[in-house]
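Annex B, item 7. Sequence and structure tokens for protein A, then protein B.
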Amino acid sequence: MDRVINGVERFAGGLLAFVTALAFISVALRYLFSWPIPDSYDLSRNLLGILIFWGIAASGYRGEQITVDLIWSALPPTARRRLDIFATMLSLFAMTGLALALALKVLDLHASGEATYDLALPIWPFALFTWAGSVAAVVLLLARLVRQIAGTALAETAPFDNR
């Protein structure tokens, strides 16, 4: 499973590097030569959506998202475990709803034929990859929940706990 997560992180990291390079090169070309890269804005924002959802998938599985551990750190280990399970269930519920909403958006975009301005690239494939990231997040959160319930969760300690 770690290889899958590492692959997801590499994919998201590669997309982030591409989006960063695209933005930098487009801005440089626009200011130096008054020639922007066609559809660089649309490509950047759609690719950012994809990498955000794939990043959510990886961080949700590993439990590396931003947390507030004020109450968690004051609880005994059994209550911590229960709170972790509850939080994962809540995240799974919310991500499942978001994945369903994104699926409807993909269908709407496909039916509308919406495209980018300059190159007339269809938008729905970007939305489809974004939706795939949300589905990956649901699957990985479900895997995390199963591991937590079985008692083999990845992160059971606070982020800065040096035990």
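Protein B:
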Amino acid sequence: EENAMTKIFVSAVIDAPVEKVWARVRDFNSLPEWHPKFSRSHIEGGLASDRVGCVRNFDIAGGGGTIRERLLELSDVEHSFRYCILTSPLPVEGYVAQLTLYPVTVGDKTVGIWTAEFEVTNDDETGVVNAVANDTFGKAFEVLNEYFAR
């Protein structure tokens, strides 16, 4: 039977200008430097971390396994990147995610919108959604806000 696509939408206001937030998250290889859920990352084959097609290989902190993701698009104009999961401990297929930052011109803040679409390949859709929406995307916005508040 065909699984329905699961869609995730997470948004947050980050109390910093869009250029500063983008500078913090732009490097596709830097996730463990600012996100506590992940550790150790390298770009396979020594490619530049902003080159479309490059693959980041990183670990879930605390022995949760390794994830490999391919950068599909990156735009410095739109402060956005898209990527897909190649291999992951998560029971997902066809996973594509996108992070876009929008300037909030009044007050010089940023709105971050992180979306993902995928099929869950086991019965635990709730668990997978929680891992992506809360532990990954939501947590990212939380730690970015803490970082810029310092």
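Comment on protein B: The chain has a mean pLDDT of 96.
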